[in-house]
Amino acid sequence: MMTNEREYSSDLEGTSFSNEQSDLVWDHEDVLDLDDFTVQEIETVIALAEQMREVLDRRIARAPALRGFTVINLFFEPSTRTRASFELAGKVLGADVISVSADNSSVVKGESLIDTVKTLSAMRADAIVMRHSMSGAPYLASTYTDAAIINAGDGSHAHPTQALLDIYTLKQRLGSLRGKKIVMVGDISHSRVARSGIWGFSAMGAEVVLCGPPTLLPAGLNDNVHVSRKSSNLPSVQVETDIDVALDNADVVMALRLQKERQQGGLLPSLREYSKLYQVTQERLSRAKQSHVLMHPGPKNEGIEIAGNVASGSNSTIEEQVTNGVAVRMALLYLLAGKGQVGAN
Amino acid sequence: MTTLAIHNARVIDPKLGLDGVMDIVVVDGRIGRIGPNEAEMVIDAERIDASGLTVTPGFVDLHCHLREPGFEHKETIATGTLAAAKGGFTTVCAMPNTEPPLDSQATAESVLHQIEQSAQIRVLPIGCVTLGRAGTELAPAAELVESGVVAISDDGDAVANTALMQAALSYSSLFALPVVQHAEDPALVANGQIHEGWISTRLGLRGRPSSAEEILVARDIALAEVTGGHLHLAHISTSGSVSLIAAAKARGIHVTAEVTPHHLTLTHEIVAFDGQSSAIRYDTSAKVNPPLREPRDLEILTEALAQGIVDAIATDHAPHSKSDKEIEFDLAAPGISMLETAFGLAMKRVHDGSLNLPTLIKTLTSGPVDSWSLENRTNTPGLGTLSPGSPADIAIIDPDLLWKVDTQEFLSKGKNTPVDGWELKGKVLATIFTGEPVFVDPEMSSRLRLN
User: Domains along chain A?
Assistant: First the structure.
């Protein structure tokens, strides 16, 4: 693990980034999930993200610390916010950013994922930001390239940058996550946001509660029988199918997007029933702490998993999450560019 | 007249009740004499010094995929049978999920011709249950039997339609033909990748629940009971299946079952973890249907084998090319290349004390032969045994030899196995098929005196 006490500075006046705690801990060539992040590493990202947020809030948000660094967004699944967020994050830092989507790349001609990644790697991409509908795809990609792979969401598996931006947002609101009750409501089975959230929130000391109908809760949560240190399950969580019980005294409530396909897949009788049973409403939130934080990773279906007045209410951080997402992604690109090592030059 | 004398082996033949040090004399491809010091007076023979080694009947595999015709880039009858010989097998039954599938007399004849041309050992074809494996109309079982198929199966897929499965069991009872079911309810395993449990949740992969297997096992046992047909359950993988089979056998229903070496020894955890690092992986080489299950399932399956509830070890050898496996997990082909590691892997259960060696050998020899009545079906008396007059199909093994699996040394085209690089204890050193050595390990060369 690298601990670097030097101050980071870019070549442009007024764009010097430093770590407040003066010790930056970072040992990652890729960002695939948060399961291999230490608390110190998460704190490093957050501390840098705070500085990136200051840059973003300037009238002209530019700090070209990553000039000459090439970022390729490789999106095999439609995405507006995550893709735009990474594009902006790279551009604010002066990196060259291009986006390739499965629709107009050679992927539709049957080029394999491995070939695509090798090709982008041969074009000297420094970082590949990857979104894929299949769990594990970024892990496969990372074994075929020296470029840093950032997982921007893989199937039902992980979405680590979302979890990091959520942690950053919660630290802004709550100071610390230690001992806080965080309730995620919705389709846990298919949610990569939930899985990465479980890792990240648990690492920061929060108590995680998962709430949803039994058909959308995954198997084997908390199953630690026969599990060794070398094969760890997700951190232990509470599972609660009754939303009123789940929300009781909650510090944080996160509504997850409900995919309409779940109804066709026979997992729900109707979206109407889902919203009757699990919609996060003002009335239900009265059970949570009055100061609760309301989150949604977006894009949201107002009137299904979340009531419109809740989404735009004073407890909501939904827009903050989006802005913080750019800052967190800036921080990650900065770290993956090896700025920790060349910063003192 | 050619004679082969095998000296001083520990001979294990469960069917004949043999377990002791003795000699075997092979004359003109058949077992001649067997007993202590029988080889002493034999003159002008090729000789094998098997002191300290174990000799058993050649292994019999009820379930492998040789891929020919149609998928010769994955395996051929030639390479698959070379791999089988290296694994100690002298008889293998080949699944019909080829292209075209083996669902007609014409295809059967052409496959048999290819077997005649290129097989190193005995290959017994299995025919399809349904035309084109499509699950809608019965394939011509009488004609397939006439051509020489020894069982029917749509393996790779279940025969899902209950009425059709009932008809298959009912009609095949005319020929006492085993109907081999790949028992996984398609609706419950749709898009499923690995066992449904904490690993599938950890990796975000769709699960294939144990209940998907048990539901079809229970259904098909009920169908076997009403039809009087012979149900053979392929590669069973769950403790629940074992209970159902035990109860069915106790009621006298004609049910037999096999288990694979990997379902006896590997759990779903190896998909995600290599046992060394805490980092996760998506190891497509451990993707197989039915999936690798949980530790408790392994224990119950091993006990069931010891108790005779499960009749046979079958490899489900499923070779794939590199490009079939080096791909997104959801897209990777299911299956493990197993012929060359089957014995060594299954021996883990002997070395950990849960099976004894004669029982393991039984489940690799007379167990499979008897469960499908292969002696009668192939008109080969003594198949799966070392009884005098039977074909001299012999495996020479060292149950205690440590060796390292290296897929680069596989004779199979399929290098797809999660146990590459593993150290296994127990190795096949030579395989003799109808009196001829079809595989000899370099470790054996100093023990051979061949003409």
Answer: 2-155+323-342 (3.40.50.1370), 160-222+233-314 (3.40.50.1370)
